[in-house]
Amino acid sequence: MRFSSLLSSLALLLNFTTPTLAQTQVPPGVTFLYNANITVGLSVDVGSIPAGNVTVIPVIGGALIGPKVSGKILAIGADWGLSTPQGSYYTDMRAQIRTMDNANIYVQMSGLMQRNDGLIYVRATFQTGAQNYWWMNYAFAFGTMRASGTGFMVEMWHLNY
Length: 161
Hints:
By secondary structure, the chain is mainly beta. It has one domain: Porin (Beta Barrel). About 5% of the residues lie in helices and about 55% in strands. The protein has one helix at about 5-15; strands at about 30-40, 45-50, 50-65, 70-85, 90-100, 105-115, 120-125, 140-145, 150-160. The protein has an eight-stranded antiparallel barrel. Strand 5 (about 90-100) and strand 6 (about 105-115) form a beta hairpin.
């Protein structure tokens, strides 16, 4: 069976139709989630590994404010950053949020500094058992992170779907 025939059969089986220009989907919108100021402690140089140099930067506090979620960042977590020989920086930050109404939300941000201006593009995932924030378990969140005098400034959005 030719590949195009296989795709056609699969499309019929799954009840898909080929979109026309009039059927083109509208891309999802975005909603501002929060601004965060993350305070960090003294970094620990793990050293060089085959992919580059690893530095661990402890998260020691901070705050976030947004229209649907606001609170403080607890002194639990760190950024396990990788600096490559090519000059790229990959962040892998994990932190704990305590909301104003005492819900706990675990956040993990990962991403890449794509230019040498210090701006890191991040994606975030959240985990919580709090019913008021349950939607965050499924949020597709993204944003920017930039070093500040005491740590990092983060601006985060999520897709509307």
